[in-house]
């Protein structure tokens, strides 16, 4: 009883209530500071990534399957072949001047995007590295072109096709984004290798519609819509480069002046007395747009996929 009385008396001592209140305030401030510090630290701490091993044949950063040979490892290639991706797509590009507004590597840049899209749409193919040189002739006046001869291209196409066959591909498709060597070189190499390997169940084909037919049909559509006659570095390729690469591939500020020497109908010779601009453009690229580029790109992919599927039917 005495102890209880002492406690009560001590609790009721003058000034003790104020001390208690001060203590509680300090305690709450400390707790709030700890909570706030912990919250800020957690907010600033980087999230711990989930350790995931990407599936073989899949990109670590994308859901689409890897279809580009040069980005794959050899186990990924081996597994892709085992899964039925036994068609090798060889798409040649080309390094040449493309007027003041377009990058010299346009054929290579467009080629990489085109062959990858074809491989993805086919589902049973691998896009091989794009060959950056095709038949052409360099010029000191327009210094953007580095070319091969037809004979060198033929030797290269034959060699890389047979290397793909040794690797394990059962079908090889030859295609090109540049007119040099088409159709003769590609067609002749494909026939030669088809005759050699068809008895072994291996086939080599030349897909010409991705270039000739797609280009011709797109040009017809442009003319039907009132666009000017096309030529080198004009609306089709300038538009496609705009669509695929934007300002990185095309100097957009120069499109408004991208007018070259007239694009003449087949067989018509230019007037020798007429002055020439000789700026690398044949025709008029001033109405080029990314929307037209998408149309041209989609046509190339669609035409190639359709023709290749015909080649492979029944194999």
Question: How is this structure best described in words?
Answer:
The protein has 315 residues and is of the alpha/beta class. It has a single domain, classed as Creatininase (Rossmann fold). It is 46% helix and 6% strand. The protein has a four-stranded parallel beta sheet, sandwiched between helices. Helix 4 (106-122) links the parallel strand 1 and strand 2. The longest helix has 29 residues, at 16-44.
Keywords:
315 residues; alpha/beta; Rossmann fold; 4-stranded parallel sheet; 9 helices; 46% helix; 6% strand; disordered N terminus
The third-level CATH topology is Rossmann fold
Biggest pleated-sheet summary: 4 strands, parallel
Query: What do we call the CATH homologous superfamily?
Result: Creatininase
User: Mind telling me the C-alpha Rg?
Assistant: 33 Å
N-to-C span: 105 Å
How are the elements arranged and paired?
Elements: H1 2-11, H2 16-44, H3 74-82, E1 87-92, H4 106-122, E2 125-127, H5 150-167, E3 171-176, H6 184-197, E4 203-206, H7 212-224, H8 235-245, H9 290-312
Parallel strand pairs: 1-2, 1-3, 3-4
Helix pairs in contact: 4-8, 4-9, 5-6, 7-9, 8-9
Structure, briefly:
This protein is of the alpha/beta class and 315 residues long. It has one domain: Creatininase (Rossmann fold), CATH 3.40.50. It contains nine helices and four strands; from the N terminus they run H-H-H-E-H-E-H-E-H-E-H-H-H.
């Amino acid at each position: 009883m005495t102890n209880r009385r002492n406690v009560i008396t001590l609790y009721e001592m003058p000034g003790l209530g104020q001390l208690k209140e001060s203590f509680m305030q300090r305690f709450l401030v400390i707790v709030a500071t700890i909570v706030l510090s912990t919250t800020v630290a957690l907010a600033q701490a980087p999230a711990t990534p989930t350790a995931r091993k990407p599936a073989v044949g899949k990109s670590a950063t994308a859901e689409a399957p890897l279809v580009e040979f040069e980005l794959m490892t050899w186990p990924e290639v081996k597994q892709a072949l085992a899964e039925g991706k036994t068609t090798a797509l060889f798409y040649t590009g080309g390094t040449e001047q493309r007027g003041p507004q377009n990058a010299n590597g346009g054929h290579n840049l467009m080629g990489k995007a085109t062959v990858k899209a074809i491989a993805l749409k086919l589902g049973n193919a691998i896009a091989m590295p794009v060959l950056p040189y095709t038949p052409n002739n360099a010029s000191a006046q327009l210094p953007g072109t580095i070319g091969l001869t037809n004979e060198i291209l033929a030797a290269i196409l034959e060699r890389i096709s047979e290397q793909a066959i040794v690797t394990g591909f059962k079908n090889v498709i030859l295609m090109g984004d540049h007119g040099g060597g088409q159709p003769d070189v590609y067609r002749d190499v494909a026939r030669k290798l088809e005759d050699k390997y068809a008895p072994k169940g291996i086939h080599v084909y030349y897909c010409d519609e991705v270039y000739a037919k797609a280009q011709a049909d797109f040009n017809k559509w442009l003319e039907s819509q009132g666009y000017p006659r096309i030529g080198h570095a004009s609306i089709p390729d300038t538009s496609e480069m705009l669509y695929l690469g934007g300002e990185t591939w095309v100097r957009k500020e120069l499109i408004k002046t991208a007018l070259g020497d007239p694009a003449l109908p087949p067989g018509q010779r230019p007037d020798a007395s007429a002055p020439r601009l000789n700026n690398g453009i044949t025709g008029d690229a001033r109405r080029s747009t990314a929307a037209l580029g998408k149309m041209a790109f989609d046509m190339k992919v669609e035409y190639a996929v359709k023709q290749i599927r015909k080649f492979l039917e029944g194999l």
